[in-house]
Amino acid sequence: MSGPRRTHCGITTMRWGFQPAAWIQNELPTWPARKAPRGLLTQQQCHRAGLTTAGTAPAGQVIKGRDVRVALWDRTELAPAEPDPETDVPTLTLLDGEQPAEPWCGTPSQYIAA
User: Fold this and answer.
1) E strand residue ranges, the chain
2) In whole numbers, what is the pLDDT of the chain averaged over residues?
3) Which of 1, 11, 36, 59 is the most exposed place for a label (fewest CB within 10 A)?
4) Is the dihedral of CA 12, 13, 15, 21 positive or negative?
5) How far apart are CA 50 and CA 80, in angstroms?
6) Alpha helices of the chain — where are they, by DSSP H?
7) Is the pTM here over 0.90, yes or no?
8) Is residue 90 part of a domain?
9) Distances in Å between the alpha carbon of 25 and those of 13, 32, 85?
10) How far is CA 96 from its chain centroid?
């Protein structure tokens, strides 16, 4: 058997209490795939949820397959990701006084892209 020898007698953590399927590996609580507590996200899940790890240390890890480690972050410690200015939808601002006509219909426009 390669890698560290694992005895699944469980660990007790301050955040999640007793975790029967977990062990400590590389100073992080480690779970087999699909056994981690709720509220922990992989980096890909953080990105999809619009959150950033922003240098936050991982709260744990999951072992997928044979010794493939995936870091996990606690959702409560993550910050919202800054919107990407290149893909951000342009904001609309109200015009003061002058209202140019829309090119396709000729009616006055109240908003322009800022």
Assistant:
1) 11-13, 17-19, 23-25, 28-32, 40-41, 51-52, 60-64, 68-74, 79-80, 92-94, 111-113
2) 76
3) 1
4) negative
5) 6
6) 43-48
7) no
8) no
9) 14, 12, 39
10) 40
Q: Does residue 31 sit within a domain?
A: yes
The DSSP code sequence of 13-35 is ETTTEEETT-EEETTEEEEETT-
Number of domains comprising the chain: 1
Does the residue 32 lie in any domain? yes
Q: Using the 8-state DSSP alphabet, how is residue 110 labeled? A: S
pLDDT at 5: 57
Handedness of CA 49, 55, 57, 58 (dihedral sign): positive
Structure tokens at 83: 């919107």
Burial of residue 74 (CB within 10 Å: 0-12, 13-18, 19+) is middle
Encoding tokens for residue 71? Answer: 């870091």
In this predicted structure, what is the pLDDT of residue 55?
85
The answer, yes or no, to whether residue 6 has pLDDT greater than 60, is no
Contacts of 83 (CB under 8 A, 6+ apart): none
Within-domain flag for 112: no
